[in-house]
Amino acid sequence: MNLKLISACLLAAVALAACDSQADKIGNASTVFHLLGKNDRIEIEGFDDEDVQGLTCYLSYAKKGGLKETVNLEEDASDASVACVQTAPAVRFSERAVAKPKQVFKRSSSLVFKSMQVMRYYDAKRKSFAYMVYSDKVIQGSPKNSLSAWSCYSGAAASAEGVSSGGQVYGSCIIGTAPQK
């Protein structure tokens, strides 16, 4: 009976580990050679914030390889970096939708107990976004983190054409009044 329960828990944990956020793999760089299994590496992924159209964030993070990764028992280091850039002529969002901090990305970093996540913070006074990446564990997290900040005033000014009623242009941002999700 205990073997069945343990097997079911392991299977559930593997399934949950596979349910990571949607991101596009950009590339990787090998850091440590392993004769068996994949090498240790730094992976790079890009993802879009669903509430902020025209802004893309890129993550680089340490990934353990070897035999443990083959059977999904590795625990990745808490080393990660995030950078966010404008990827459209204008960035569009609703201040109501971005007012509260929100987790915009999450990835499992071990079988069950550790995850890496990206939180979005909006600074309404400065019309800026801050994206912070960090890892946490069920028992104890890591103070290692990385931050990327992006301002509406860092790009070319957006055109006021096509701005819906109630919307305003601030630098390269078009801020609408859409209801909060």
Automatic annotation (TrEMBL):
Transmembrane segments: none annotated. Coiled coil: none annotated. It holds the Pfam family CreA. GO terms for cellular component: cytosol. Residues 1-17 form the signal peptide. Keywords: Signal. PROSITE patterns: PROKAR_LIPOPROTEIN. It comes from the Bacteria. The keyword ATP-binding does not apply. This is Uncharacterized protein conserved in bacteria. It comes from Kingella potus.
